[in-house]
Amino acid sequence: MELASIQPIIYLQTMKKLLLPLLLLLIIKASAQTPGQIHQKAILVDTHNDVISNELITKFDLAKRQPTGNFDLVRAKEGGLDVQVFSIWCGEEYGTGTAFKFANREIDSLYALIKRNPGKMVMVRNAAELEQAVAKKQFAAMIGVEGGHMIEDRMDYIDALAKRGMRYLTLTWNNSTSWATSARDETLHHDSLKHLGLTDYGKKIVRHLNDLGVMVDVSHVGEQTFYDVIATSTKPVIASHSCAYALDPVPRNMKDAQLKALAKNGGVVFVNFYSGFVDGTYGRKETEFLNVHKAELDSLTKIYHDGDLARIRLNTIHKVESDQIRPPLSMLIHHIDYIAKLIGVDHVGIGSDFDGAESYPLGMDDVTDYPKITEELLKLHYSEADIDKILGGNFIRVLKANTGK
Ligand SMILES: [Zn+2]
Q1: pLDDT over 60 (residue 395)
Q2: Of 43, 150, 292, 329, which sits 20 to 30 A from 93 (CA to CA)?
Q3: What is the whole-number distance in angstroms between the Cα of residue 49 and the centre of ligand 1?
Q4: CA–centroid distance, residue 146 to ligand 1 (Å)
Q5: Ligand 1 mean position to 392 CA, how many Å?
Q6: Are the CB atoms for 87 and 52 separated by under 8 Å?
Q7: Higher pLDDT, residue 108 or 28
Q8: How confident is residue 32, by pLDDT bands cut at 50, 70 and 90?
């Protein structure tokens, strides 16, 4: 080799040594995503929101940004929300002759909202339709019926609701039905129960839901009902809005053994944001707060003709005080992390209960705040693939396992 040709080779090799790492660093930097990008890219599904039952009272147009409440379509987009399962709910004062009718009125109002927003919002009934809607950038709506009392003990009412789009039935709300006992009744009214857990008719209902591809929801049900469901259901079941009992021992939350049984069934628990289910000290603090403002709450209830809305208004009036008793966001994240570590990242998701409770952890004010969950999970070193599962992947899997497509 000639001396003259060695010089450029040395030069090239030195440049290579210097430039290659620099180039690699630039490529990594360009491909590294911000938490916001990871969040927006993921399919985000929230399995529980009560805004539709409120809408019948407030008459708010959810297509426009609202000054109050936790949800509207504008804010949902900002929060990266792709799919919302809307809860169809009425209180236990509704029963035979009224509950099914009321459920249908709420479903009418959801369809009316979709009709007012053609191309922007669509009803989906299975995973294939869900993924199609997300690909078209349409907001996907789904229906979950919260409370077995709305079927009024009739199989044909289950068929009718499924036909209108119901994709989960929460077997009980706080009140038991003649065929399933609730968490409240199994714990507080145990001695006066007429039956415990699922009756034979209740088991028949679970099997019928399995056949129809309607997910069985065990949030709100008692422990006996839960284990009877696990023994009966041929499909993975869900808890659409529940937290971990080990972190906040209220009857509505799920004990470790229940969480493990749910995972064994292939099911998913979607974590509830309500302060009372997240923080074990919230109940005591709330009682103190309400004692101080009792007279004011009574008069607000008279004005609003609705206890829940009056309670939310009381929080707004006394914002500093009510903020002081909210748990930190880290407590909510802890529930997700605790469940993921106990039963696996494939079995946890998000079911906010937005517009269904009066208090959420600090920083979790409405649907624009979902990206904070992704940020916090990244800080805990969750991978993008795992975050995708928690935000929506697990829901899509369990939906597919129930509907077959
Ligand atoms: Zn609920």
Answers
A1: yes
A2: 292
A3: 9
A4: 7
A5: 20
A6: yes
A7: 108
A8: confident
Ligand 1 centre from 27 Cα, in Å?
A: 47
What's the CA-to-centroid distance between 353 and ligand 1, angstroms? 7
Q: Which residues of 131-168 are buried (b: 16+ CB within 10 A; e: fewer)?
A: bebbeeebbbbbbbbbbbbbbbeeeebbeebbebbbbb
Cα of 1 vs centre of ligand 1, distance in Å, is 81
- Quote the CA–CA distance of 195 and 224 in Å, as a whole number: 10
Q: How far is the CA of 67 from the centre of ligand 1 (A)?
A: 24
Is residue 3 very low, low, confident or very high in pLDDT (cuts 50, 70, 90)?
very low
- Rounded to the nearest angstrom, the distance between the alpha carbon of 350 and the centre of ligand 1 is 14
**pTM exceeds 0.70, yes or no:** yes
Ligand 1 centroid from CA 21, angstroms: 54
pLDDT digits (tens, 9 = 90+) for 138-194: 999 999 999 999 999 999 999 999 999 999 999 999 999 999 999 999 999 988 888
Q: Report how far ligand 1's centroid is from the alpha carbon of 220 (Å).
A: 7
How far away, in angstroms, is 216 Cα from ligand 1 center? Answer: 14
Taking the centre of ligand 1 as the mean of its atom positions, its distance from the CA of residue 242, in whole angstroms, is 8
Distance in Å, CA 89 to ligand 1 centroid: 9
Sign of dihedral through CA atoms 196, 198, 200, 202? positive
**CA 30–ligand 1 middle distance (angstroms):** 43
Q: What is the dihedral of CA 264, 352, 229, 149, to 10 degrees?
A: -170
Compute the distance from residue 357 Cα to the ligand 1 centre, in Å.
9
